[in-house]
Specification:
Helices cover about 35% and strands about 20% of the residues. It starts with 9 loop residues before the first strand and ends in a 7-residue tail after the last helix. Helix 11 packs parallel to helix 16. It folds into two domains: about 170 residues, Rossmann fold; about 240 residues, 3-Layer(aba) Sandwich (Rossmann fold). The protein has about 425 residues and is of the alpha/beta class. It is built from 16 helices and 14 strands. Helix 13 links the parallel strand 13 and strand 14. A six-stranded mixed sheet has the order 2-3-1-4-5-6, sandwiched between helices. Strands 8-7-9-10 form a four-stranded parallel sheet, sandwiched between helices. A four-stranded parallel sheet has the order 12-11-13-14.
Length: about 425
């Protein structure tokens, strides 16, 4: 995760007066001691950068700045360095103390507005005092996002993460590649597309079409076969393909027919990365190990369709999970925008690939699950785990595979 280049991270700057708790707030958000915290004003002397993976946004770079109300020659140098951060800040967090809001903060808001930089006003230390209602109402009337927070108690941190997601630039939210970044120009990718009852007559499903287009845009070579022709197709190639992508329902046969040295994954797992946050859903998948009889599982589909006899969400996944866990699980299905406000009764959420949604919508749902403390995974990840090929299906994604290896608990059930 930390290997992501700075230029590909969302740059989030923290600004404000000295000693308003910018560093404490950053430490609370990252759950790490990134910046030195002291009651002495001006402890942060130079901008402190912290690259991290902030769920559900993905790779971000937090920049903790020195207080820009410094005085004197040395203070002026620090202020100069802080103002340089303005140039690369994509989302600004303006930290203030309750009861302290004046011309200084107004000028910062005006600066961000002039730069068209989204800004979140965070009143920190609300565990000690309440913010001025008049100021808060005026800021919100000006369409500014205002969050009440405490770096000490954790109040408002979930709301702050939600605000960061809402204000992140669309090109950051919607920029991930489906598969092109996993293969180079001229590389061969074999797509396994079963033609069964769930395949729409006369056309391919959207994830398959999007993957083909992404490969063409990446100057890669694409071969499309049915699962029964895969072995023959691979034998006819002079060199092995860089990657095989399959419909998750054909995972077992395709895994058996694909040489071990060839990377393998599924369209659904590609969608977990493209439309959501793969590492968050990999972590959620591991909750399968903790499932016991009577546990409620929510199966959520982004679009609505008439279920067929062997529907993947209503029939196949429940059957595979029951076989793997040996437990009698209680499955609840929801479609479209239907989704519980209260997730507390569920032990796991299994989501479709959300191919019909934008990425922000799926990230919001992941964040809702995270705030509720309920793990979330997706169809392809669940199928791969239940069939015992989870590690292999993650091989094309080093960060996700490393997280799985790090978090992997007891050996899978026999």
């Amino acid at each position: 995760m930390s290997s992501t280049a700075k230029g590909l991270r969302l740059h989030i700057g923290l600004f404000g007066r000295r000693n308003v708790g910018k560093s404490s707030l950053l430490n609370a958000i990252t759950r790490q001691s990134v910046s030195i915290v002291s009651p002495i004003a001006g402890t942060t002397t130079d901008p402190v950068e912290k690259p991290m993976e902030l769920l559900p946004l993905g790779p971000v770079l937090f920049i903790d700045t020195a207080g820009i109300d410094e005085e004197g020659a040395l203070g002026a140098l620090r202020v100069g360095k802080t103002r340089q951060v303005f140039e690369r800040t994509e989302v600004a967090i303006l930290v203030a103390e309750p009861g302290i809001w004046g011309r200084f903060e107004e000028e910062l808001v005006a600066e961000f507005s002039a730069r068209q930089t989204p800004v979140i006003v965070v009143f920190n230390k609300v565990d000690l005092a309440a913010a001025d209602d008049t100021v808060v109402e005026r800021l919100r009337a000006a369409q500014l996002c205002v969050v009440m927070a405490s770096a000490i108690t954790g109040q408002g941190l979930a709301e702050l993460r939600r605000a960061l997601l809402d204000l992140a630039p669309p090109d950051f939210i919607d920029s991930p590649s489906i598969v092109g970044d996993l293969v180079g120009p001229g590389e061969m990718v074999v797509l396994v597309v079963p033609i069964d009852k769930e395949a729409p007559k006369g056309r391919l499903i959207l994830p398959q079409v999007q993957t083909i287009r992404d490969l063409l845009d990446s100057d890669a070579i694409c071969m499309v076969v049915k699962e029964r022709e895969l072995r023959t197709a691979l034998a006819r190639l002079n060199t092995p393909p860089r990657l095989v992508v399959t419909d998750s329902q054909a995972f077992l046969k395709v895994a058996a027919d694909t040489p071990k040295e060839v990377a393998l994954t599924s369209f659904s797992i590609l969608m977990a990365r493209f439309k959501g946050n793969l590492t968050a859903q990999v972590e959620g998948t591991l909750a399968i190990e903790k499932l016991r009889s009577g546990d409620r599982i929510l199966v959520a589909e982004a679009c609505t369709h008439h279920p067929i006899g062997e529907d993947i969400g209503r029939v196949k996944i429940p059957r595979w999970l029951a076989q793997y866990t040996g437990a009698k699980l209680d499955f609840v299905s929801m479609q479209g925008l239907d989704f519980p406000d209260d997730l507390s009764s569920y032990k796991l959420v299994i989501h479709c690939g959300a191919c019909m949604w934008n990425r922000r919508q799926m990230l919001s749902r992941i964040l809702q699950c995270k705030q509720a403390g309920v793990p979330i995974t997706n169809y392809g990840l669940t199928i791969a785990y239940s069939l015992g090929i989870f590690g292999r299906a993650l091989e094309p994604f080093p960060a996700a595979l490393a997280l799985y290896q790090e978090l992997e608990g007891p050996p899978p059930r026999a």
